[in-house]
Amino acid sequence: MHESADITATFVHADDVPWQHVRTQMHADGQKSVREKWFVIGREPPFLSMYGTWDPGMIVHRHGHYSHQVVYVLGGGMWSGERWCPAGTHIDLPFGAAIGPLVAGPDGVELFEVMMGDPRSWEADRDGFHELLAERGITALPNPPVQLPEWLEDKRSDHA
Predict the structure, then answer these.
(1) Matching Gene3D superfamilies, A to Z (predicted)?
(2) Which residue range is the domain that position 131 belongs to?
């Protein structure tokens, strides 16, 4: 393959990307959130690279994405089902694979993620998620609004 003048690299610094609150819950000790910085949301080919932080104890339902996904735990840690994923854990999720439920550890969790395909998610276990929230006295709050490209419909309200 050769270099093309029409193809250039994109450079983005995390400080220049706004935080998006993508999930919120009310816990006994206050509101908890998942926040993400979306570095690139590509259309052709579909692609997302992002940095995320989760407050301690934040729970995300068992789900998958309409893409191949790579997750790298940068800091803190999280539970994926019964498996503890500390900083340094690399998770490879082929298209069609589900993960979770995901529970941020006592220090929260920091993640770098790449989705190679449509980054939107599908729900894998709604009843189990609601049972887990009830067991822990957690209330899921409405999804906060996010800024997506006009060509990408927000489908988070389609599931928990």
Answers:
(1) Jelly Rolls (2.60.120.10)
(2) 27-69+91-104+121-145
- Is residue 115 situated within a structural domain? no
- 57 within a domain of the structure (yes/no): yes
- Residues contacting 26, CB < 8 A, separation 6+: 32, 138, 139, 141
Question: Consecutive 10-residue runs of the chain (160 residues): their mean pLDDT?
Answer: 76 96 95 96 92 97 94 98 97 96 98 94 92 96 87 71
**Within a domain: 32:** yes
pTM (two decimals): 0.91
Number of C-beta neighbours around residue 67 at 10 A? 21
Q: How far apart are CA 15 and CA 12, in angstroms?
A: 9
Q: How far does Cα 67 stand from its chain's mean position? A: 13
> DSSP of 46-84, one letter per residue?
TEEEEEEEE-TT-EE-SEEEEEEEEEEEEEEEEEETTEE
Whole-number Å distance between alpha carbons of 63 and 78:
15
**18 part of a folded domain:** no
Domain count, the chain: 1
